[in-house]
Amino acid sequence: MSTTNDSTEPKRKRRFGRKNKPPRDPNNPGRWQQFKQVWSMTRKHDPAAMWWMLLAALAVLLVGLLIGLWLNMLVYVMIISLPLAILAAVFILARRAEQAAFSQIEGQPGATAAVLGTLKRTWYYDEEPVAAEAGGKVRGMRDLHNAAMVFRAVGLPGVVLINEGPQAAAKRISENERRKVGRIVGPEVPVHTLRVGHGEDEVRLSKLVKTMKKLDKSITKQEAMVVHKRLKAISASAKPPLPAGVDPRKARMDRRALRGR
Question: Strand, coil or helix: what is 192?
Fold first, then answer.
């Protein structure tokens, strides 16, 4: 009699059997896990965020309560107000998490480029600095962490030049860039200069976008796009004196820190 080896036969799948779930990617956590990571990071760097979230949620519920009593539809209005209160708390968390992330990259070379990436569609900006100058020497090597850089953005207020790094060098190259831009765009387009820092006439990195939006509107969106293309075309052939080893495009928000790691 011949015997058959059952181990060599393929196993049949059960009709109602559960499928094996693929292993979860550690670099791509779920939404709930991301929320927990953002919450832990924000609470660590901004303990007051929890109270602001609670205040926003209670304010929405209070407004819903008053409207419900006025319309004599308390239960119905409160059911609608509950998800709105959660949405308000999440909105506050997102704003506080953004500020906490900015505070972590503050002081790093090219941190301005990461903030400019949060601008809306009415703004046009360059990821790389339009002018840069390396710092002094430390132990015979260039101090790349002390480099002066100038970034450029074009929007409804006109051309905005943002400089960072050592004050004397940043002011010098920023003034040179302002004169060059003025010759290209003409007197009709305003050229604003801002400096990132903690001084009296300086702008905090977390408040840079808000400060730029407060500038007076002088040109239209179409004119801003034309000015940006003109500046980009003229400066394309002349590469900015970027110090070797500095890549401002890598000065992004720390995703691990944003997830609380």
Answer: strand
